[in-house]
């Protein structure tokens, strides 16, 4: 039973070829490209409004130097939201439940923010490792602690996204299995369990969007420290 619960997080294969690459490519195919017409469709207008509003909110804490990252961060946000939402459909695979993928997204972007800080303002970047006014005996300890906290950031980004999505998928599977089993013996309890399942599914839709936003927001804050 324990193995079957986690089978949904295994990367599907076809003729021995992992299909995770197809799952990652799918979000880009679903979004329509802007047309050359004077008036766009309602869907394109809604998509443009959402992207513009999100970009404005994303760039609020950043100065002009960080605005160069707008296209990258917005694309990452849309990419994560789409994969998280598609993973809630039945018989689908969620690539963002794989820690390797999330670390592959978090580590290069975090490292880029650190490199930018070390290149543009090395004194300020290194100053984060030692708070002002620290007593002399605590300086070595605080430098070690701040260095560990700096290098643990990409791991925290990847684990947060993976853990939240994995926990939600497991809860949905457990509650749906319980509702199916109780349907024949206790229909009233099964109906109550199904109601909880619907509410949990709505919660997971919100979690899928919020976790994608938190992922990109934390990257924005890391960028703000180094720009």
From TrEMBL:
Its main location: mitochondrion. The keyword Transmembrane helix applies. It comes from the Eukaryota. The chain crosses the membrane at residues 12-31, 69-89, 101-118, 138-158, 170-190, 196-223. It is a multi-pass membrane protein. Keywords: ATP synthesis, CF(0), Hydrogen ion transport, Ion transport, Membrane, Mitochondrion, Mitochondrion inner membrane, Transmembrane, Transmembrane helix, Transport. It catalyses: H(+)(in) = H(+)(out). One of its GO terms (molecular function) is proton-transporting ATP synthase activity, rotational mechanism. It is found in: Mitochondrion inner membrane. InterPro entries: ATP_synth_F0_asu (IPR000568), ATP_synth_F0_asu_AS (IPR023011), ATP_synth_F0_asu_bact/mt (IPR045083), F0_ATP_A_sf (IPR035908). One of its GO terms (cellular component) is mitochondrial inner membrane. Belongs to the ATPase A chain family. NCBIfam families: ATP_synt_6_or_A. This is ATP synthase subunit a.
């Amino acid at each position: 039973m324990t193995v079957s619960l986690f089978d949904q997080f295994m990367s599907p294969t076809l003729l021995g070829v992992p299909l995770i690459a197809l799952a990652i490519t799918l979000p880009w195919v679903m979004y329509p490209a802007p047309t050359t017409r004077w008036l766009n469709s309602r869907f394109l207008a809604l998509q443009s409004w959402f992207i513009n509003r999100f970009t404005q909110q994303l760039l609020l804490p950043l100065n002009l130097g960080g605005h160069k990252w707008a296209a990258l961060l917005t694309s990452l946000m849309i990419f994560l939201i789409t994969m998280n939402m598609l993973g809630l459909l039945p018989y689908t695979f969620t690539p963002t439940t794989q820690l390797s993928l999330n670390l592959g997204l978090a580590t290069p972007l975090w490292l880029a923010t650190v490199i930018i800080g070390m290149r543009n303002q090395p004194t300020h970047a290194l100053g984060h490792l030692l708070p002002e006014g620290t007593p002399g005996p605590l300086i070595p300890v605080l430098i070690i602690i701040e260095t560990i906290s700096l290098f643990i950031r990409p791991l925290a980004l990847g684990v947060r996204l993976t853990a939240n999505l994995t926990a939600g998928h497991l809860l949905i599977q457990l509650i749906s299995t319980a509702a199916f089993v109780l349907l024949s013996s206790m229909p009233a309890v099964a109906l109550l369990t199904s109601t909880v399942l619907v509410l949990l599914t709505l919660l997971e839709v919100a979690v899928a969007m919020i976790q994608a936003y938190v992922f990109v927001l934390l990257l924005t804050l890391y960028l703000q420290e180094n720009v």
